[in-house]
Amino acid sequence: MNLSLTGEQLTIEQIREFLADKGTVEISTDALERVKASRKIVERIINEQETIYGITTGFGLFSDVLIEETQYNQLQVNLIRSHACGVGTPFSQDVALVMMVLRLNTMLKGHSGVTTDLVEQLVFFINERIIPVIPGQGSLGASGDLAPLSHLALALIGEGRVYYKGTEQNSEDVLKQLNRQPHQLQAKEGLALINGTQAMTAQGVINYIEAESIAYQAEWIASLTHQALNGITDAYNENVHIVRNSEDQTAVAARMLDWLEGSGHTTRQGQVRVQDAYSLRCIPQIHGASFQVFRHVKEVLEKEMNAANDNPLIFDQGDETLVISGGNFHGQPVAFALDYLKLGISELANVSERRIERLVNPQLNGELPAFLSPEPGLQSGAMIMQYAAASLVSENKTLAHPASVDSIPSSANQEDHVSMGTIGSRHGYMMLENTRNVLAIECIIALQAVELKGADRLSPKTKEKFEEYRTFVPAITEDRQFHKDIKEVSDYLKKVAYKG
């Protein structure tokens, strides 16, 4: 896939396709002209020695310190070196790659004042898949994602570490291999690279892609459970959901009926019981609410992906130009959305674990063996898989605490309120991985349960899923190391996220 960047219309779906297809980026002609025009304004500021934050002055508390004209470029290099204070496990390579794409897209809006050389360096890194090693911790989510983006910038100037062709190397060494020069930072460019929300937004985009996918996967997994427990389909009747005025709830109900169409295991109300437990009966309400969350988060993320969020911002208004110090780097809107996303992810795991309990509990599972054990007593079967799911759900509850309610002043109280949005993005991904593992456990147990009930009576659509997953998840005929099954199913569910 060839992704044409304009600074205006980038979507999450385009990012998903770009990652899935190992695509390349190109710059639209209009966007490149905007970059050139904004750079001319920076050069005029330099020539006229105007007092403009981050171009002719220091940063943060040092914003009133004027810099000598001969040191403007060194100021930018010093900024990157001093701000590269990230620690901890690096962001995934996909997140770091998306970070570069988003930072480039912001520059193309024509408000950042960077050179075309910097734009071309970013394009080169993206298309050659030279991925900066970016530690995941250290950002406050205001004044931009300063520490993470500084590590990105270090790679561009040949001073950082990168992943290239499967190994971690020095950026300078990789550039030499490719006969490419490190970028020489010009006035304003260091600040333009790091004053932005691209770390939290990039991780948020990955969170969204995988969360939406796992929510769809949760429906057919729940449909297997529904059939194993002889669930009642009446609760999914569209009349029930239309009167709730929730398009997401109604859509989930319709998809559940579609998954269950033609099943010999489902029942009608009063046939076996009058009502199912909430974890079956309320799947449209619970899953639908998560989709509602995801729709809102997508809207926020796509606005931010196409936003000018560095500082200062440059505006060419024809007869005059404006260079304004503002606060678009503050991540609060994204931070709120990413914390909200965590709630939608969490509940998919919560309700899945309750369905798992119904499958393994002999008092609830409709005469299936306790823990679906092939030899109850001698063999434990799925007993501890439910323990693992319960542990993951409990961990999610602690991670769901909103990062955005916290703030610690920085830069000697010049930056006295911050968003902590990048923490929320990282915790969200941890929750997503936990949730995917919970659903993998439900999948393994539901496969076993429907096999015991009779896979030949499954609905045609879920029978296809049964046969697909049985190719790598064998039936439980004796106790084995189930952690291997859980990982294999979880990895498979993750891979599906990028297939559309």
From TrEMBL:
Keywords: Cytoplasm, Histidine metabolism, Lyase. Contains an active site 4-methylidene-imidazol-5-one (MIO), which is formed autocatalytically by cyclization and dehydration of residues Ala-Ser-Gly. The modification 2,3-didehydroalanine (Ser) is found at residue 143. It is found in: Cytoplasm. Its EC number is 4.3.1.3. There is a cross-link at residues 142-144 (5-imidazolinone (Ala-Gly)). InterPro entries: Aromatic_Lyase, Fumarase/histidase_N, HutH, L-Aspartase-like, Phe/His_NH3-lyase_AS. CDD domains: PAL-HAL. The keyword Cytoplasm applies. Belongs to the PAL/histidase family. This is Histidine ammonia-lyase. It comes from Macrococcus lamae.
